[in-house]
Amino acid sequence: MSRHGGFRLAVIGLFLSTLPLSGALYRSNSLGQMLEAIEASQRNDFPCVLESHEIPGKGEERVLYDNGAMVGKVEIEADAKNPTNRTVTEYSFGADGAITGKVQTLYDQGLPQSIAWMEGEVVHLTLHTYIDGKMVETKELVDGELVSLITYYRGSDGMLSGLRIVGLDGTAMQTIYSQDRGVSVYGENIQGAFTKLSFYPGNLVVRDVWTNEKRDVETTVAYDDAGRLVIDETIGTKRIRKTYGPDGMLVKSESEDADGKKTTITYVYDHNGVLDQSMELVVGEHTRRIERWYKNGTLETQTEWLDDLPIKATRYLSDGTSVVTLFDNGRPYADVTYAPDGKRVLSLEYRKER
């Protein structure tokens, strides 16, 4: 039985094992969830029926039938003095009535302490450890050997604040969770690579990345004089500053590379928040400006300038083709039509001298 099969069986067993301890029939679903009590005469009126009855001197047995065929069974051995301490054994059956899976769960004070099942000839065992009723550790064993160790970290309020997963091959993953002043933080550490995501109002996500304690991506967050959110991000030697409007829309992006070349992109939106136009300004040895205009959020025209002289203008047509006008010293001299793939030239037309 696969582990997924074991999980499904555990779900069935969870529903079956929480039913009242009495002899009765119930209309059910395929997971063994009790829907309503029924009479014996109604047994054949429903596809899924759950039968519950006591086993003298042992405990309780619940059997799930699907169209008359037994598909699941749960045996519960409860401590007479403390019913929250019990052993629940769950079986699944094939079409021929043979047992196809078996999962046994041991509960103490109502909390699952161990879960065991077979997968072929391999024995799987899951062990849980608690402190004050809160899970702090999970161990996964296969044939008696530890293959995975999960450690749960909790805050002073008992809420989960992080976890660490160590695998058989020595790989380790650690995650953290926190929330402060409306900002949710999620962190993940995998083999020395740590990523921190901060979620701000307006669906804004800020990312910080470290590799072996070296900070690859560094981020700072502040607000400008207009009350707009400003995020400064350093990736290697490249610095990027992004400014967001009160509606969470990006209004400006500024960056500078290692050579000192600066790029600024500003964005303008219509009243529905759909991108209307943008202007990209690249300042280095020369100044390059690209103006883009959009219609319903789709790029329609684009003009590129070099040191205040136009060098190329592009029109994007509804059939997917594009027409590029080339300039020489600020004057248009040719129109090139490209196929939708942007590579094949469909036509080339030179403009006559005036």
Overview of the structural elements:
The chain is mostly beta strands. The chain has a domain at 1-111. Helices cover 4% and strands 64% of the residues. The protein contains 1 helix and 28 strands. The protein has a 28-stranded antiparallel sheet, with helices on one face. It is elongated and about 105 Å long.
| Average pLDDT metric | 82
* Secondary-structure-derived class: mainly beta
The largest pleated sheet is described as: 28 strands, antiparallel
Task: Report, as a whole number of angstroms, the end-to-end distance.
Answer: 82 Å
Overall form = elongated
What Rg do the Cα atoms give? Answer: 33 Å
Q: What is the count of DSSP helices, taking H or I runs of 4+ residues?
A: 1
Tell me how many strands there are.
Answer: 28
The amount of helix comes to under 10%
Sequence stretches where pLDDT stays below 50 over 5 or more residues:
1-22
Beta fraction = over 45%
Order of helices and strands: HEEEEEEEEEEEEEEEEEEEEEEEEEEEE
Keywords:
disordered N terminus; 28 strands; 28-stranded antiparallel β-sheet; single chain; mainly beta; 1 helix
Strand-helix topology:
Blueprint: H1 3-17, E1 24-28, E2 34-38, E3 48-55, E4 59-66, E5 69-78, E6 86-93, E7 99-108, E8 111-119, E9 122-131, E10 134-142, E11 145-154, E12 160-167, E13 172-180, E14 183-190, E15 193-200, E16 204-211, E17 214-223, E18 229-235, E19 238-244, E20 250-256, E21 262-269, E22 275-283, E23 287-295, E24 298-306, E25 309-316, E26 322-328, E27 331-338, E28 345-350
Brief synopsis:
With 354 residues, the protein is mainly β. It is built from one helix and 28 strands. It has a domain at 1-111.
